[in-house]
Batch of 2 targets.
Target 1
Amino acid sequence: MLGQTLKEQIERFKLSRNETAPIVRDAASQVSRLMTGHVDEFSVERLVAWLARLGADVTIAIKKAQRRGRRGKVRIRVS
């Protein structure tokens, strides 16, 4: 979902790969990899940093466990 949101943000701003690269502080070839669907090559931290550099507000919320033994959930919401 992070990769898709990034791709949409880049397309919404009508940025080329070469225009995007200095904004996200990475190589144009890496932007190209993202835009062609190779999201699995990128860490969550890197994708979040790119989103922030493109002006997106990114919020990560951690809710403390109420009891031991219950598995937590991971949710991503884009608004």
Target 2
Amino acid sequence: MGLDQGIRRLSRENAALLDAQFAKEEGGSDYPFPYEEIEMLWEGRKENHIHAFVERVTGELKGWDYRRLEKSNFENLILALQTVIADHSMAPTVLPTSSGFFFGSTDYDEWYFSDLERELTAFQGIVDNWDDTKVYYYWCWW
């Protein structure tokens, strides 16, 4: 077990279904949802600094959650990633880790900085291929 996370892209119609599902109640709904139509743009595992960034933008996340993100959120995340990659000492203030049940290490070590490089490439690709007709979500589960 651990913090699983990702960036998902949905059509506006499917985003409305997803939003309705989460608005009804935690843990299920009567709304049919075509999960097979979710585009998975990024997958993460125990990258708790990304989770912390999303919480700062959207508020506290539950153990199974979808949160809408705007293009500006990704642009701000890219700027944070670039800043910390250029100056590792900025990590605790610009892109801090987050502790939690099954969230993994909170150390600013070689694994953390290695993740940043990979994330920068992935998130820059998302921005470079942005589709204004779609809705973007951060998804997490632990």
